[in-house]
Amino acid sequence: MAARADRDRDEREIIAVIEEETAAWLRRDLGDWADCWIQDERAQHVNARPSVGGRRIRDFGSIHGYFADRLAQMPDSGVQPSQVRREDWQISIGVDMAWVTFDQVVPLDAPSDTAPGRHNHLRILEKVGGRWKIVAVFHIPNRIGYHACPWVHLDQNGLIIESGAGAEDALRDHKALKIVGRRLCGKGRADNRKLRDALAEASDLIERRVGRTPAPLVLSDTDDLSISLCWVSIADMMIVILLEDENLLTRSMKRAGEAYKLTARQVRVAEAIARGNDLNRVALALGVQPSTVRTHVKRMFDRVGVNSQPALMRALLSVEAPKT
Question: What is the rounded average pLDDT of the residues 215-224?
């Protein structure tokens, strides 16, 4: 029983120091961050990701210097520690050493320097003076695994490389997209052209190694004149189409409402339209008359300076998050 209690205590302390190291980094507290580490020549920090390749830093002095420079370049992380979650913990504990793996998930719309997405972590810790300290970090970003919504990983020509859970069902009944052979295509000629243009733009950004948050792709070749929305992500040099990302939609519409000074009801109308509803279904969902919805849409047209629902959606969804 005593051994089990000691192990449980060690696990809690190990998790606590790992969480504090990340929290200190996000709040830009270099002193508290350094206090989580063994500060000698044994320390190592290893990172590998498609966009920047591999990087290995040895000796804590070098690690400290590298991250001090990073903090100076980006004094505000743009992410609160409470927004970061960890899952799939695996902890092995020896006498004075521990081996830990876990997945760490940072919000996908976080600033690119904060590395949004899912990260596979391996940590090695030692117990020094009764306290667990980090001696080595091995870190592999895996952003494609982050997406909770249905997603499709494509090449620049639309060839499907892999897809996530629910993608096949989502595409089977999709208003504007379809699979032809192994390629993702638009059902209508105009939408197919928009998709090809979006893939070409994403490919160009990857070629130039230019980062970007997920961009909206508003498609509109539908029988009932409603729009169809998806997102084009290029995280870690991969083109990924996100088919139904509610979190991205909600955050984007909130930013748009603030930028264009829309009312709360207008934001709700815009969100309902972005989900593919025609104006009658929007009215039914919100419990108002269709004429009321049309009035809200007209006022948003005037506020944003557009004259069609697809143009309105493109404008609202393209409002960028504030730079940090």
Answer: 78
What average pLDDT does range 268-290 have in this prediction? 93
What SS3 state is found at 110?
coil
Q: Look-up: residue for tokens 């000074």?
A: 261
Q: Which residues lie closer than 8 Å to 191 by C-beta, 6 or more apart?
A: 176, 177, 219, 220, 221, 228
Residue 222 has pLDDT above 80, yes or no: no
Q: How high is the pLDDT of residue 224?
A: 55
Of the candidate CATH numbers 3.30.450, 1.10.40, 2.60.40, 3.30.1490, the domain formed by 147-244 belongs to 3.30.450
pTM: 0.64
pLDDT tens figures, 135-159: 999 988 766 656 778 999 999 999 9
CATH class of the structural domain 245-324: mainly alpha
- Calculated CA dihedral for residues 49, 52, 53, 59, nearest 10 degrees: -90
Under CATH, what is the fold of the domain 2-145? Nuclear Transport Factor 2; Chain: A, (3.10.450)
d(CA 262, CA 112): 28
* Residues in the chain, overall count: 324
| CB atoms near residue 316 (< 10 Å) | 28
C-beta neighbour count of 277 within 10 angstroms: 20
Contact 183, 160 (CB under 8 A): yes
Question: Between 116 and 55, whose confidence is greater?
Answer: 55
Q: What is the pLDDT of residue 70?
A: 85
Domain ranges, ordered by start, for the chain? 2-145, 147-244, 245-324
Contact predicate 184/168, CB 8 Å:
no
Evaluate whether 183 touches 157 at the Cβ level (below 8 Å): yes
Q: At 64, which amino acid appears?
A: H
Beta-strand (E) ranges in the chain? Answer: 44-49, 53-58, 85-93, 97-106, 117-128, 131-141, 151-154, 160-163, 177-180, 183-186, 215-219, 228-233, 239-242
